[in-house]
């Protein structure tokens, strides 16, 4: 896309027995199209089952969203706090 990414939700999807969720609000420093950022997390889960790690919702600078409506709502509610 052409819009900067301002918030996102990444989760372990359909992984049996464990879960992982990472929510990031990047509104102060949006991620530009084509830019890559790496995030360190304390959980080992993402590294043990990377095929199950999925972006489930995203918010862009122009207010557009991507993802399941429930996940987008969860993301919007979390960043408003």
Structure summary:
This protein has 81 residues and is of the alpha+beta class. The protein has helices at 45-48, 69-80; strands spanning 5-12, 21-25, 53-60, 65-67. A hairpin with a 4-residue loop joins β3 and β4.
Q: Tell me the β content.
A: 25-35%
Q: Kindly state the mean pLDDT as a whole number?
A: 94
| Percent in helix | 10-25%
Low-confidence stretches: none
Specify the overall morphology.
Answer: globular
Major β-sheet strand ordering = 2-1-3-4
End-to-end C-alpha gap: 27 Å
Count all strands and give the number.
4
Element order: H for helix, E for strand: EEHEEH
Largest sheet: 4 strands, antiparallel
Secondary structure category: alpha+beta
Total helical elements? 2
Radius of gyration computed on alpha carbons: 13 Å
Structural key phrases:
single chain; 81 residues; alpha+beta; four-stranded antiparallel sheet; 2 helices; 4 strands; 20% helix; globular
Explain what you see.
The chain has a four-stranded antiparallel sheet with strand order 2-1-3-4, covered by helices on one side. With 81 residues, it is of the alpha+beta class. It has helices spanning 45-48, 69-80, and strands at 5-12, 21-25, 53-60, 65-67. The N and C termini lie far apart (27 Å). Strand 3 and strand 4 (65-67) form a beta hairpin. It is built from two helices and four strands; from the N terminus they run E-E-H-E-E-H.
Question: How does the SSE layout of this entry go?
Answer:
Elements: E1 5-12, E2 21-25, H1 45-48, E3 53-60, E4 65-67, H2 69-80
């Amino acid at each position: 896309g052409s819009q900067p990414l301002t918030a996102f939700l990444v989760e372990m999807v359909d992984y049996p027995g464990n879960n992982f969720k990472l929510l990031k609000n990047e509104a102060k420093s949006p991620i530009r199209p084509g830019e890559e950022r790496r995030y360190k997390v304390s959980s080992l889960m993402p590294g043990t089952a990377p095929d199950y790690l999925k972006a489930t919702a995203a918010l862009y600078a122009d207010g557009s969203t991507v993802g399941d409506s429930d996940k987008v709502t969860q993301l919007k509610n979390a960043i408003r706090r």
